[in-house]
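Notebook entry, structure prediction.
Reason for the run: the old model in the group folder had no record of what sequence produced it. Starting over properly, with the input documented here first.
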Amino acid sequence: MIFVQDVHKHFGGLHAVDRALFEISEGSITGLISANGAGKTSLFNAILGVLKLTQGKVLMAGEDITGLPPHELSTKGLLRTLLNTVCDAIVRLNQERGNTFCMIKHDMDFIGRLFDPVICMAEGKVLAQGTLDEIKANEQVIEAYLGTGLKNKVAS
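New structure, fully documented this time:
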């Protein structure tokens, strides 16, 4: 349903989003996770037309929606909301109406309850994509999201 194609968002020399490439499948509840500062919000704001892309395209149902303002995107069904007061409504809308969602969240319990698939970003790039179990087992994700110290602590 939504295809993010080679998306870049730069703020001067800072590459907040760097070559993001992924698809949000129709009817999914997709999670976008990472450590703070990895580019999630910049990517979301670029997809939603709040920020102008430096480069790349965003397609929705095959239509190029790159750069459309948020009010036009909301009429197409693409909007932003805040992911704890609406959790049950999201599940219901997904199951009963087949609505598609992509959400940003840091809480792993919440992620495990709601998201499949999960996309993980680090330093502005998409690092991994898959089920939460696949993401949690990915060495690059562990390093970027949790840090080496925690990885070594969990292993022992």
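Summary: DSSP finds seven helices and eight strands in the chain.
The old model has been moved to the deprecated folder.
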